[in-house]
Amino acid sequence: MNSQQRSYLAGFLDADGSIMLQFKKREDVRFKYRAKAVICFYQNDKDKPGLDKLRDIAGIGYVYGRNDSMAEWRIEGYARVKDFLLKLLPYLRFKQRQAKFLLQALKILEKKGYSANDLLKVCLLANKISELNNAPRRRKNNYESVKKDLLKLGLISP
To answer: Which residues are bridge partners to 41 per DSSP?
Structure first.
């Protein structure tokens, strides 16, 4: 991507995109939660070809039609999200803080053998991202709920 394309994509992310850090309960992972880094761009279904074109320019992610007349371009995975955010960061205006919080979280998550307390630090960063996003609904798996589960499982101490 050239600088003009990065600038355009950053403006699009600022206006019609989301930067998210989600937590999914999983029995098959060490701390019973999987952190998922996601960047999404949204448009009306009729504009899906435009999202396809932008995905092709960036060379990552996938575009699909949702069941609410919207199309979504999703970029997932620690390395892909990190690389993409680092390219857009200098151009972001409204979502620069969310991007910086997610990059901090990815630095922790990319470490081999991070601890349950590290996971809680990531949860706090996810809460900050969510607050900045003005999310209309409260996240099910947030710092408080993850901490409660980790305590109950004896993975952290009070």
So the answer is: 17, 73
In angstroms, rounded to a whole number, what is the distance separating the alpha carbons of residues 54 and 40? 12
19 Rama class: left (phi>0) / alpha (psi -120 to 50) / beta:
beta
Residues 6+ apart with CB under 8 A from 30: none
Q: Which two tokens stand for residue 60?
A: 């990552």
Which residues, 6 or more positions from 107, have their beta carbon under 8 angstroms from its beta carbon? none
Q: Which of 70, 84, 85 is nearest to 16 (CA)?
A: 70
The per-residue pLDDT for range 11-21, each reduced to its tens digit, is 999 999 999 99
How far apart CA 116 and CA 33 sit, in angstroms, is: 10
List pLDDT tens digits, range 109-155. Answer: 998 888 889 999 999 999 999 888 876 667 778 888 888 888 888 88
